[in-house]
Model the fold of this input.
Amino acid sequence: MFVDSHCHINFPELAQNIDQVRASMLTNEVGHALCVSVTLDKFPEVLALAEQYPNIYASVGVHPDYEDIQEPTVAELVSLADNPRVVAIGETGLDYFRLTGDLNWQRERFRTHIRAARATGKPLIIHTRNAAEDTLRIMQEEGAAEVGGVMHCFTESWEVAQGAIEMGFYISFSGIVTFKNAVALKEVAQKVPLASMLIETDSPYLAPIPFRGKTNQPAYVRHVAEEIARLRDIPLQQVMDATTSNFFSLFKHAQPCN
Done:
């Protein structure tokens, strides 16, 4: 079975069709999915899905794109993460693409999440866009390597991937790797060791080829795996086995379902 290591199935596009979403997962051999929190006010929706379905897991965190929103504290994140269905802290990180100006609040929020992850022992889900240097620097300064995590929806260079891997982080590829113009990313996907790789959809966004432009869903993570297998000229089963094993090695609080 495949695992979708990052999705947002609490978003309305998918939540209103959750039975169909789960049926499509089964049809496409996607056995588990991690539903990722982006704001604290919507965290109860994320947790409810994880508590209702044993093959769905939850994270808790506030996305760096959200300005002027309830700012999490370390204590609050630690408290919300004190639930067996919550397996990670995030998504968190830095995004200098969507927002400009003084973004020190974003960097402080990132530090808060890393400190919460260290306090809980649960790994980080990191988003970085146009901010790789600061992202890696703050990870180093705050001791993110103590808990590890994943660089989700990775679109950076091989050098950035290496820096994250050296800190014990996994590199997760989304449907972007299937896009024809993602030449540099395809090269990174050929270089990242299978032992350091995860796959994801980031659904409902970034649907892979042949569904580009449509609503994405966890079932489509299979197409990400197929592209990686093609790029590396290895059997699809090898990608499935490696990324699924990696998921449960990283997210130790996630118990696999039979």
About this structure: Residues 62 and 72 are 7 Å apart (CA to CA). The chain has a mean pLDDT of 97. The longest helix spans residues 104-120.
